[in-house]
Amino acid sequence: MTQSAIEIEMIPMSFSIELELQKFPKTVALKDGKKATLRPLQPDDEKDFHQLFLDIPEPERMFIKHRVTDLKIIRDWCRNIDYGRNLPLVGLIGGKIVGDATLHQQLGGWKRHVGRVSVLVHPEFRGRGLARALIAEIVDIARRAGLEKVEAEFIGEQEAAIHMFAMLGFSRLLRLEDYVKDMQAISHDYILMGLDLKTDEEYASASG
Ligand SMILES: CC(C)(COP(=O)(O)OP(=O)(O)OC[C@H]1O[C@@H](n2cnc3c(N)ncnc32)[C@H](O)[C@@H]1OP(=O)(O)O)[C@@H](O)C(=O)NCCC(=O)NCCS
Q1: How far is CA 162 from CA 93, 155, 169, 172, in A?
Q2: How far is the CA of 41 from the centre of ligand 1 (A)?
Q3: How far is CA 83 from the centre of its chain?
Q4: How far does the chain reach from its first CA to its final CA, in angstroms?
Q5: Do residues 53 and 61 touch, judged by C-beta distance below 8 A?
Q6: Three-state SS at 143
Q7: Mean pLDDT of the region 16-27
Q8: Which of 77, 183, 184, 208 is the most exposed place for a label (fewest CB within 10 A)?
Q9: Atom in ligand 1 nearest the alpha carbon of residue 126
Q10: Is the previous residue joined to 123 through a cis bond, with omega within 30 degrees of 0?
Q11: 166 three-state secondary structure
């Protein structure tokens, strides 16, 4: 394949992330009847987004890849937003950020057709369908962006999340024993799950 053919393949013809994000903020009804607002992370979310990570219990925070208690790291994420690379979609209840699902994309290389999804919900706001709503939006955006697959990474102990992704259609691709280390350098199994995406055109042709 020539260089220009590769570049053309990387950019879906009709997709514009700015256009796609115009549908936000979006209100969704949760299982308990309350409403949540979904929208992309904004530069002025710094403190509120940091607070979400501070509210995650320490044992669970160990499994997060980045040192999210460090305000400088969150500030850097909020001030250098590039939705084409990392799209954090936050969920707000009563004006407070209580959840996040992020679509991570590699803009070149051999995984350029695979998006990665990560998700986190505040412990007090779990079990209401917020993660499901956030992931549904992220997967929809990934599909419309022309990605062919999405994947999600876990450590073995994240059983709730693994169960949830399985319910959302993701299948287990691999498990590697004692492959990753948490922030305290303790080894854990690594699990990769994935979902094949169909484009709108494929859906249209499948339905005749
Ligand atoms: C996993 C997590 C995101 C779920 O968030 P949530 O908002 O409570 O999830 P939802 O309410 O949208 O639940 C979605 C589905 O998953 C299932 N589920 C959620 N938590 C579950 C649990 N602890 N055990 C079993 N199933 C669970 C629900 O039954 C639900 O299915 P239903 O809608 O048919 O009832 C949340 O527990 C979390 O933030 N965990 C820590 C971070 C993490 O592990 N992230 C994943 C790494 S990418």
Answers
A1: 25, 9, 11, 9
A2: 21
A3: 12
A4: 32
A5: yes
A6: helix
A7: 92
A8: 208
A9: 8
A10: no
A11: helix
Is 146 in a helix, a strand, or coil? coil
Which residue puts its alpha carbon closest to atom 40 of ligand 1? 120
- Nearby residues of 205 by Cβ (< 8 Å), 6 or more positions away: none
Q: What is the pLDDT of residue 187?
A: 96
User: CB within 6 Å of ligand 1 — which residues?
Assistant: 60, 118-121, 126-132, 152, 154, 158, 160-161, 163-164, 167
- Apex CA 112: angle with CA 188 and CA 195, to 5°? 60
Residue (of 11, 44, 38) closest to 23 by Cα position: 38
The reported pLDDT for the residue numbered 203 is 57
For residue 6, pLDDT over 50 is answered with: no
Place of tokens 């706001």: 125
Closest listed residue to residue 144, CA positions, set 105, 100, 94: 105
91: its two tokens: 């969920």
Mapped onto helix, strand or coil, the DSSP state of residue 97 is: strand
Residues 6+ apart with CB under 8 A from 73: 66, 67
Atom of ligand 1 nearest to the CA of 152: 48
Confirm if 90 and 46 have CB atoms less than 8 A apart: no
